[in-house]
Amino acid sequence: MPQPHAAKPAVLVTAAKLAPEAVSILEAAGYAVPCTSGYPSEAELLAAIAKHHPVALLHRQGIINGAVMDAAAPALRVIARHGAGVDGIDLPAAEARGLTVTRAAGANSRSVAEHAMALMLSLLKDLPSVAAGMRQGLWEKTSRMTRDVEGVSLGLVGYGAIGSKVARFADAFGMRIAAYDPLLPAGPLPGPGERIADLPALLARSEVLSLHCPLEPGTRGMIGGGELAALPRGAILVHTARGGIVDEAALLAALDSGHIAWAGIDVFANEPLENASPLRGHPRILSTPHLAANTPLGAVGMSTGAAESIVAVLAGRLPALPGAVVIPGGLREAA
Fold first, then answer.
1. pLDDT band at residue 146 using 50, 70 and 90 as cut-offs
2. Residue 102 CB: number of other CB atoms within 10 A?
3. In the beta sheet, which residues pair with residue 237?
């Protein structure tokens, strides 16, 4: 006789839903898949853990800290990130507890790269203000000029799965591409563009600066007032990486001064973004609610990548997805 649903080991999803394809993968492997609400607090996570005793956490939203990990001990074996960025997981705490941490590396890269290009093109063409003028009854046929995309200097901070795709898209538009990425092996870029050895040199030449690096101690606050001032006057900032990389107060000041013409932002230091935040209504910011990866291919890829990693780790195997293992934990010998 099949076991009742409640008797199955649980994979707790730290969000209100998970793609059905990923749920099917986990259920077929014999796991129950309860969810929290969206952006669960620590208190809610602790309550959900006490109820379900999960063997794995599939992390979409909220913060997974040491207290959450301890509450799930000793059953918890793996934390799988629904996406590439793992800044919402306390990695030192996970490593200290022997937990395996994985991520769905590259699963959403095309979706995010497309979103970055959409923001970039919209702002190069002044579309937010043009559209606002149309709503106000203006007809700026002869009074407004927008920019040519061809020949614009694009600076990329990060040339991984997402940044390299942005480079290929931008190359098709005839942009002049340069990139700074100290994590790449020595040598030329593995795609379009010129490799730049240091960030200040990249900033000085970037009419558009697009960020595609992880959030970690070395990148937190990396783009502050000094870095924004180093960009050419009238530059555009596109930010689809992780909140916390950009000093948001400094960005607002640079926009208000006119030194930065536009900013397209999908990620914020505190999410969800407060209703009263000036980042929501600033006339020179095109903001979106951290949805760059929310396309059918992106969402399913992240969900199934995380689910498949959980199934593999709990079976004692390395995940098939390249670059999935962040901390080997119990897989240390296999890794």
1. very high
2. 31
3. 209, 263
Under the banding of pLDDT at 50, 70 and 90, the label for residue 334 is low
pLDDT digits 0-9 by tens, 280-331 = 999 999 999 999 999 999 999 999 999 999 999 999 999 988 889 999 998 8
Q: What is the pLDDT of residues 30-66, one digit of tens each?
A: 999 999 999 999 999 999 999 999 999 999 999 999 9
Contact 209, 246 (CB under 8 A): no
Pseudo-torsion of CA 170, 171, 173, 177, nearest 10°?
A: 60
> What is each CA distance from 190 to 104, 168, 200, 208, 323, in whole angstroms?
22, 11, 22, 21, 18
C-alpha angle with apex 250: 267 to 211, nearest 5 degrees?
Answer: 40
Q: How far apart are CA 283 and CA 47, in angstroms?
A: 42
Residue 103 corresponds to which amino acid? R
> Could you list the active site residues?
242, 271, 290
* CA 234 distance to own-chain centroid: 26
Query: What's the whole-number average pLDDT of the chain?
Result: 95
Hey, what are 287's tokens? 């903001």
Beta strands in the chain (DSSP E): 11-13, 56-59, 78-81, 100-103, 153-157, 176-180, 194-195, 208-211, 235-239, 260-265, 285-287, 325-327
**CA distance linking residue 35 with residue 42, whole number of Å:** 14
User: What distance in Å separates the CA atoms of residue 285 and residue 260, rounded to the nearest whole number?
Assistant: 10
Hey, what are 34's tokens?
Answer: 């309860």
Instruction: Spell out the residues 6+ positions from residue 237 whose beta carbon is closer than 8 angstroms to its own.
Output: 208, 209, 211, 223, 228, 231, 246, 251, 260, 262, 263, 264, 265
Is there a contact between 42 and 65 (Cβ–Cβ < 8 Å)? yes
Quote the CA–CA distance of 76 and 55 in Å, as a whole number: 4
Q: Which of 316, 329, 312, 310 is nearest to 12 (CA)?
A: 310
**CA–CA gap between residue 328 and residue 334 (Å, rounded):** 8
* The two three-digit tokens of residue 319, written as one number: 């995940």
> Which contiguous run of DSSP H or E holds residue 35?
none
How far apart CA 334 and CA 318 sit, in angstroms, is 7
